[in-house]
Amino acid sequence: MRIRPLGALMAVAALGIAGCASDDGDSPATSAATGEPIVIGAQAPTAGASAYPQTEYGLAAGVQYVNEVLGGINGRPLELDTCAGDGSPETAINCANGFVSRGVPVVIDAVDQSMGAAVPILGAANIPITGTLAGSFVADSAPYGKAFYFTGPVSFAALSSLSTLDSMDKNTASLAVNESPTSHAYVDDLIMPISGNLGIDVDVQYPPASGANLTVVAARQVSDDPDVAGVIALPEDGCTTLFQALRRQGFDDTILAGSCSQFIETMGPQAEGIITQPRLWVPSSKNSAPPEIQEQLETFEEAMADAGHEDELSSRSLYTFATIVNFAEIMSDAGGDVTAATVTETYQALRDRPTFAGPNVTCDGEQWPDVATTCNAQALVFEVQQNGDLEPVDERGYVDLDLSMLPSS
After folding, report:
1. Where is the signal peptide (predicted)?
2. Burial of residue 94, with CB atoms counted within 10 A of its CB: 0-12 exposed, 13-18 middle, 19 or more buried
């Protein structure tokens, strides 16, 4: 099957969404890019105990797709300068200093928890950050124009998951997240206040990032006899191990999976009824997605296979792939040189623009209370079906959240 560029898919979407796609009438490029590369930065969490190698796979597939299918950015090939984050601020600072010294026009945040330490350095150099979502509160809190994230902030996941449980009339939940200072801050500052506002009693376990006995964690969760068990956030393999242990120990009520998705194939029918909330439409949701999104998901699957990562179709690989493709499409539509200034100006001007497998974005700094980096504030939540497909909990797909449930500042 031929891989279709996002530009072509957006043209289809534009038939029903006026003014969202480029209207210059040009056909999307389909020949390999040539000439001097456009080098951009990326900080990906690919080292340390909490590494997510899937982020790098998505980046690599995205660059290959942009160069070989989209024809680069205005004919020039895209090249990635990737720095391996390990969760430490020291590494993030070193990465940022390297990006500044090499003069990259933008840095991709591949959902790196330590990205916040890079924000002041990149901000002082006026190098914008972009990504599907931020890996830290600090990155979320960057001033307007310093970062652009195409889905909600870190606080979004807490509000989305707990609002979903509330809509399902769930009153108690027992959830796990890897031990770290950021995890405790997330729970204390968001999970507990929001759950209190919604009347949900939440117990949290903090297994270590490496060497955790998730069978023991599952036993702890089951012993509480909650309405809901599962995770706030764990790596993909941790989610799968925990969910399997919950089922073995007889838990047949709702499991909350966060943004994990790889458990679906491994668990088969036992995954039925699990609630997952990726930020984008993912491959398992293809059958229930709008037609233009189905084609984009096919593009992602084929591009990952072409890059040799057909077995890594996770949410995180999709997030980074989508970020690369969105950047290439947006800057190609803008034309002209790709500099830090033109990237910032172009992203600030985005209004109701369709994105790869994601929501329409408006980067005006007004989409989330006190978070200027967010370009969309809608939730997308799925329930796993017996055949492994995902269907939206709300048939509309992306839905608005009640922002009044957020903790008051």
Report:
1. 1-23
2. middle
Percent of the residues in the chain that have a pLDDT greater than 70, as a whole number = 92
Strands (DSSP E) contained in 3-76 are: 38-44
- Per DSSP, the three-state class of 254 is strand
* Cβ atoms < 10 Å from Cβ of 141: 18
Long-range contacts of 16-25 (CB under 8 A, 24+ apart): 17/352, 17/354, 17/360, 19/352, 20/352, 20/353, 20/354, 20/360, 21/353, 21/354, 22/333
Q: Which two tokens stand for residue 46?
A: 């690919």
Q: Do residues 126 and 341 make contact, with C-beta atoms less than 8 angstroms apart?
A: yes
State the pLDDT confidence band at 121, using cuts at 50, 70 and 90: very high
Reported as type and span, the H/E element at residue 299 is helix 291-306
50 in Cβ contact with 178 (< 8 Å): yes
Rounded Cα gap, residues 116 and 146, in angstroms: 12
Q: What is the pLDDT of residues 152-167, one digit of tens each?
A: 998 888 999 999 999 9
pTM summary value: 0.81
Residue type, 204: V
Q: Which two tokens stand for residue 12?
A: 């289809």
Domain range list for the chain: 6-152+290-376, 155-278+381-405
Q: 384 pairs with which residues across the strands?
A: 390
Contact call for residues 174 and 253 (beta carbons, < 8 A): no
Beta strands at 378-379 and 399-400: parallel, antiparallel or unpaired: antiparallel
Fold match, 6-152+290-376 / 155-278+381-405? yes
CA dihedral 387, 392, 394, 396 (to 10 degrees): -130
Fold of 6-152+290-376: Rossmann fold (3.40.50)
